Amino acid sequence: MNSVASEPRLIGLDWGTSSLRAFLIGGTGEVLDVVSAPQGIMHVEGRDFDAVFHRLVQPWLRGRVLPIIASGMITSRNGWRETPYIRVPSGAEELARNLVTHEASGGVRLWFVTGMTTERDGAPDVMRGEEAQIVGATGADMGDGVYVMPGTHSKWITVAGGRIEDYATYMTGEIFGALKSHTILGTLMTDGGFSSEGFHLGAEAGLSGGGELLHRLFNVRTLPLFGRIGPEMTADYLSGLLIGTEIGAAAGGLDGATITIVGRGDLAERYAMALALAGLKSRSAPENIVARGHFLIARAAGLVS
């Protein structure tokens, strides 16, 4: 850390439901260090968020005072402190104006990034944590356009003018887990390596299915029952069916668009495969964009210069 740019200026916390990541961030938004823990908000014993926080970041605070900004489910009703939602369209400036301060033990101050809400089909939709990642992605020159964030609750987000304009949530990952583990569809599945063939067949069925999902789900049972697909293909067929249905619903009318995938690993690769089957181009956002988002929000709030 010899240059000015490499001196720590900010700590960013990405505190979700199942995991927690902390970033030590330098003067131009670069990540200097990362630590993580499997202590998302649902895995904190006795809801002692203060103790988990101090244990994770205390080594970075020895001998220095740094602003600390946190995003994710830590600001939900089940988290450390519930914060209100702001409405779309919003971006870094709006998030900066609506930061919520919180004092941890020892007089350490945090700034919580609030969530966002929109109204779709007469009902509210919400996000917590994704907004910081999108701010980071736009700040990393990914620009305006359509973003998909695969996960338990996938988000399809439209960005215009550098701000989140609208979004929609799809419970694809959670539905997959529930169907696989708690319905008859899982009884003919066997664990094994990824079946590209099974996933492709399922994705094609989902993409062409329109409103037939509730009918086509039963094929997850009948196809292996009649030997049309093997039991080692069945889970990936279900995955493809659900992801294909999601893409068919969310990406209608996006011909020629390039979809930015915000995520890592196997799930992001599945979305890229299914998007290609749908005739759509995709690209992947860089890693740790949430830290970039933390920096841009903190800078807009005057916490870092």
Automatic annotation (TrEMBL):
CDD domains per record: ASKHA_NBD_KDGal-kinase
Keywords for the protein's UniProt record, in alphabetical order: Kinase, Transferase
Pfam families the record matches: DGOK (PF05035)
Gene Ontology molecular function: 2-dehydro-3-deoxygalactonokinase activity
Protein's name in the database: 2-keto-3-deoxy-galactonokinase
UniProt source species: Maliponia aquimaris
Keyword Kinase attached: yes
Gene Ontology biological process terms in this record: D-galactonate catabolic process
InterPro entries: DGOK, DGOK_C, DGOK_N
Top-rank taxon, per record: Bacteria
